[in-house]
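Run folding on both entries below.
>entry_1
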Amino acid sequence: MTDPLLTRKPGRIDRVTVPPMVFFAIEGQGAPGGAEHRPAVEALYGLAYGARFAGKAQGHDEKVGPLEGLWWSEDYAVFQPGGDREAWRWRMMIRAPGWLGAEAFEDLRRAVMAKKGAGVFARVTLWPFDEGLCLQALHLGPYAEEGPLIARIHDQAAAEGLALTGLHHEIYLSDPRRVAPEKLKTILRQPVRAGD
């Protein structure tokens, strides 16, 4: 079944209300694909696929969702072309299956760490996230070309009297290892609230 929150026409800005969800999540700092980011993402996938297989054994059949990321910095300039990507802060996430509670998560994490070592797996948490009202759009193309659409989302929020809240959120619908940069699909999401 297709997730209606992720089915969008490229470039169109939509207002959506995102329900509360629970994620496998890990926080860090550094360039996407860099020395800290890559193993963090690998740990998320390791736990997400571990949960999928454990769930199937119990009669659950939930697929692994897309990788998602929240991005921020104390200095917005680092996100401009030529900015210091090592200063980027992030929380990478993959939605956890609905059947997975805190105890089952700890059992899963212990089992994975027993096979692969604690390492980065010890930093992954089961994280509830209630984003609520958002503006979002589907970006088609390289990640480096998201800026104009992000600016349009911010402009539309201002035009609608909405204040920006929360962190910039990206949902990666394509695997950059298998999809050409010009065909990458990324949901860009910005939490908002009615302005004062």
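>entry_2
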Amino acid sequence: MSKNLASKAVSGLKWGSASTIANAVMQIGYTSAMARLLAPEAFGLVAISSVILRFGSYFANMGLTKALVQKEELEPQHIRAAFTASLVLGLLFTGITWLLAPFAADFFGNPDVTPIVQVMALSFLISGVSVTSLSLLERDMRFKLISIIEMAAYVISYLGAGIVLAYLDFGVWSLIYATLLQATLSAIGAYAAVRHSVVPQLNLAPYKPLFSYGSRMSFISLLEFLSQEFGTILIGRVLGSYKLGLYNRAYMLVNLPMYMLTRTFTKVVFPSFSKIQNDIQKLGRIYLSSITLLAAIVIPACFGISVAAPELVRIVLGEQWGESVPVLQVLSIGIALSFITMFAGIVCDAKAVLNIKIVLNVVFILVIGGLFYLLREFGLVGFAFAVLIGELVRMAMYQRVMHRVLELSYRQQLSIYLPGVLNGVLVAGGIYLVSSLLRSADTPVAITFAAQALTGGVLLLVLTLLFPHKLLRAELQMVFNKMGMSGNGDSPISRIIQKYKVHILKEA
């Protein structure tokens, strides 16, 4: 990467990481409060409605977000075309969703879904207005501003309006109104930052390159959505909103922290990968480095969540959510693989290798659909195991794709998981020992959970920074250099960093 691009990427990581930490803390507090104010059925209804809305969103956006970021040469007429198309599609799908909401409710056998979907359909219009500005911010890698907008909108919408409305007995509508308010505030903030032209683009030529790439991206995103939401669709239809609420909250408990850990990387990685899409060797090196670092964090974190699941559920959700524990324990492993594997998908997006990705996702949907059917008799835990096995299959398929696209050997691709798996086993083992001792002594849940978190955090830091696997040493060296901590100065901190790099981070 050029120095300017690398500088933007590092700045994006810094600000994205700060935003991620802040959002993670806020979302844990919000989730904990809402789980105590609302019943599982409320979360089940929102999960069903969200599936319906997300299904429509892939047609309403048509991949224009990714197209604006990925396109190497972007002209003003392309921006006008993207805004015009997004606005028209947003209006169209708001109306279509409003009219079809009763039929979607009939599919799930729950009439309460109809008014929720109709109101949430306004999100299509809000997205149509805001998506162009948000895409331009991402394309320019202005992640500091994106982070500020997101945090402000979240605080006002969820921590403010959402919790107050839930306390005032608005029930499931407190979740709906908070979601729409957050999207509206983000839209206002994004356009205030990037005041692009809103004059309609009547010439059809600028639409062609955007829709050529965007339509395929939209179809791929739809396939990925179907594979991810099979569980929600089937559980909501077969087992009802109560069971879906249990599954949804278990999924959230592991998906949310992993999303927070990886969202910064993914936001920075796609525009960065797109700018070097023609340099296969450099792209391959960055891909391997990214996965090595990410796996070293995500896998131990998910292994730790699996062991600490009983306390995590009781602390964050409350006693009434105990049935979610075994589901969370299984899902935590599968979701770890999902977040790591998505980097291979980002490479395909950046290089516009979309036909292969379409085939891969179709195969994955067939695989995971078959697994859901075979394991349906085991209830929610069976669905969780289907997710885990399906992610193992997807990882194998993506390794085949990366072998062809980036010319990476299978040994190279498998080896990058090793530091994360080793650290994960050690972290999980440490948490298990502490948990066993404290549980047998009937220690209060809060103290047990605090001990689990402290044990996992300390072990992960020690294993990653003090005794890094040899595959991690060069990556950590690179991170320190990119973050401006080269250790070349005369200050005490610089001398400590230099000493650390000499004795710990020397290349294997």
